[in-house]
Amino acid sequence: MLYSLHVKNLALIDEQEIEFTNGLNILTGETGAGKSVIIGSINLALGGKAEKDMIRTGAEYALIELTFGVDNENQRKAIEAMDIPVEEDGSVVIQRKIMQSRSVSKVCGESVSVKQLRDLSNILINIHGQNDHQELLHKQKHKEILDDYAGDELLKVKDQIRAEYHKYNELKEEYSNTDLDDKTRIRQQELAEFELNEINDAALKLGEDEQLEKDYKRMVNGRRISEALGICGNITGADSDEESVSDNLGRAVRELNSVRSFDEEVNNLADQLMEIESLVGDFNHALSGYLSDLEFDEEDFRATEDRLNLINHLKDKYGDSIEKIIAYGEEKQKELDVLTDLEAHRNQLLKQIQDSESKVLALSEKASKIRKKAAKVLSEKLKSALIDLNFIDVQFEIQVTPDEEKISSTGYDEVAFMISTNPGESMRPLDQIASGGELSRIMLGLKTVLAQKDDIATLVFDEIDAGISGRTAWKVSEKLGVLSKKHQILCITHLPQIAAMNTTHFVIQKNVSNNRTVTTITRMNEDESIGELARLLGMDNVTDAVLDNAKEMRKTALETRNGD
């Protein structure tokens, strides 16, 4: 569940800490008070698009912090599978800092990407915004909802379909690309032969370019190297007729050896100096050997240069490394094998396409059976949920229609939500008859049914009451009350019927402090909550009669919520 929300310097919010509870957390307030900022801040923390104008005027940054508690083992495993830490007490702290030019997101102190945040949000919370119910007008959404409900059994089959369908399309593309006339085939064959011969004639060896570069660099700079090493040899004694470091070290060693028996410390110094003399001797020997190997003739240099030029020419044409050039040659060999007997290859491709198509169709049929089975169950559950939401004579059915001519990476089914809300009327597609208020209730019904199946503990509804009133609003309130027994719910509402069902009630207000507008969120006690219900009832003057009405509404809500 969501334990708390901390917001600083965001829009009209200076700094606020909100501690949520189990059950139904209701947020109310006057229009324009900033209710959308609360849901917006949660979305931002979970990877929503951040604009710099969201930062409160005069502030350098905005900060949003969410603290979740994870006590579901499946959720914990899913989060840990993302390499995101979970604290020992099960808490997950998400922090997002929005600055003028960038934003930084962290989970339990470790930096994460926006994509990771969004994936994490799908595990922890389900947010239903004001316009989400409009998605129900799109049939593609119907298919997504049904597939989510069908669960892992369908997911495994869809993964198989996706892989086979990808293979099927690749085969079709290759078949199309090999539809060549003789003139084009011969031209491509000749080009492949030329490129393959050029690569094969080079007889490339892995790593030889690196060694050639070293040799070439050494040869080009041979004179400079020789001069520097010659001077060094004169100084150290490797090749010198004059007094050198080696000569001086020899004299120093002899002097110390003549007195080393007189003092232990002198003996140690003599040993150290002998080691230095030995190192200088080894260095001089190595230097002499290098100088003798440094000599090369012009023919070696020219051969090295020519070989490097050839390899670099092949790199420019076929790849920027010897590995890539060799790989290109192998591809050209395959292409040449195909072009040499193109008709046989196309016949083989055609058979593979037919086999792959048959596999896709068989898997699609399997997926279709799973969808139809899930559709029957979901239809009945959703119909029952809609009746609870004041759809009195509703008929509802999820139609799954196979069409072998429309295979895709998800199968060949079309899914449509069919509904009739009036007795005697035939069922028609949802987008043809549902009003805005009906769509809101259908979405709530779906959320109610799907919430019983998944592990997400926290549900957010931003004005789920759009387009409803009266008895229907009360039915929606009852449904939220039932749902809140097993889920934490955050709900923004304008309706007293829904607000009355609260477990915890917050009011959002816009005030002026120090000549600046500030949005505040306050948790109300029971008396304050009843006062807010009276305001929501629409009376400018809150009379005793209005308060009595609010108290009665609250009493009825509590009896409903606490009942079986």
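The above is record 1. Record 2 follows with the same two-line structure.
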Amino acid sequence: MKKISTKIAAFASAAAITVTGLAASAPAVFNQPVDVSAVDTNNDDWLHAEGSRLYDMNGNEVWLTGANWFGLNCIEYSPHYLYAGDIDDMLQEVADRGINVIRFPISTELILSWMNGTPYQISAGGMQASYNPPVDMDDGNGGIIKAGTYGRINKDFVEADGKTLITSDRGFDIILDKCKKYGIKAFIDIHSPHADNSGHNYNLWYGKETADGTMVTTDIWIDTLVWIADKYKNNDTLIGYDLKNEPHGKGQEGVNAAKWDGSTDENNWAYAATKCADAILDVNPNALIFIEGVEQSMSGAMPGDYWGMPDRRDNSPYIGAWWGGNFRGAREYPITPEHGTSQIVYSPHDYGPSVYAQTWFNKDFTTQTLLDDYWYDTWAYINAEDIAPELIGEWGGHMDGKENQKWMELLRDYMIDNHINHTFWCLNTNSGDTGGLWAGFQYDINNGTKITWEEEKYELFEKSLWQTQETGKYIGLDHQISLGRNGLSLNEFYESYAGTEGSNLDGGTIVKDGKPVTTTPSEQTTTSQKPAETTTDVSSITSTTESASNGDIEVTLIGDANCDGRVTIADATAIIQHLGNHDEYALSEQGEKNADCYNPGDGITGKDANAIQMIEAKIITELPVIE
């Protein structure tokens, strides 16, 4: 057993029911006090990684299956096609079609304008919005013209006059609120440093000027992401941050190209991403951090080869990949923030021959040849070897009835069979080299927005959406709000479907031990926890069979309050919930015995939950803690 140190004693003394976090040198497990009388439905949907999979706060596996909607990265400062349709109609259809998460490209420049208190106004070219008349009006003949009679499209995006567009920061708040309404989650992607409809062509996350002449530096890039992560740290609709879209550049470009190595050079993407991830996790330890790859890596072809040297026709010093697709460097230099890896998701981009005729398409390619020639060593090993979760941040393309369509089907099936998360590129029709899922729009004031979908493409994509195996109900990521009109909330799935028909995850899975997150308005405990980096290695925890308050019941695993055979942050949550409302969150007798891990014999207190947090933060390595 471990004798508690002065430092740990000070940490533990802050416990009781309010759990405020860890010592200053350790990552916070809870980022705000637990108040058992308060309800905050924005704090129960955070996700975390264990191995190559993503889980909710109760250890239920989830699958992110979504699409991209660009425009915030462009000079219109809003998602495109809001000039042709209403946000409610469009998100309702997105949810009804089973898309449970949207990746929103955005620019550092736009977030900087929000952070500086000078937010850009949404462009009239980017959004049609009106509410005319803005209030009920006298028609001059003794009658009333009802508000919105002549115009009511995107009405939440206009000022009180019914016609002046609001600022883009307020617009983003509305978009997140609407996503919440329809059961959709979101994350942002820094598509470029500057607001530019072609900004994705720029190599790096720094080195471009904004409209007012401000140079976007690495520090500004990090500061803006920290600012927005802090602003939305209690809004679990925005589940994470894709730090930079497609860092790229060819090796011979040297300092002007993104590389992945062990240096602290500014253009070393691995170093910059790790630094940025830690800064975000300082303010929101619950956020997922999506890390893309680079374009080229060193091949090791000849001794003395170095980044920046000229290419060779034969025996090249560089190995190429899609922009954002190359993770070969992550084998030797993985992303390992000081906060741990529980929030890290690697996010390659992958495309087919209609985007570019890569060498691995120069044959009658199959899943196996794609793995052998490109996928496995470039990115697929991360998932296959259980290193970390992956989310294919962009995939898609034109339906050509030939090679590109074949590639899309092969990648789709590989993601289904191997629990790989993904966001399809894209909803928009105006992506020149891929097209979109939407084909066109028609809006009228009486019937709203009619979206025409590219049905053949959607049919191909739809098979990769998370859904129940028999009834085909789409599964959302919000515990309480169902995904669209006919979909399921996460709780509904784990309560009524997971153990019977299951889902198409892993090509077909039935889960018998799902644990829904209970929300009762007067009783729900909100923890906004930072989940465990990994399941605690029980071999490193000292167990005991000392008798305490439970008679002859012996401890099976000290700290295992929920009796699942593991010691994780879920046990700390179970203890706090039990203390806050014993009737609603009762522990079993065995669970009570196991939970008493701080000064065993004194009963269950908040200090027991803190002890488990300290195990997760690696402040201590053994239980029980004896004062």
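Confidence is low (pLDDT under 50) at residues 1-40, 520-549.
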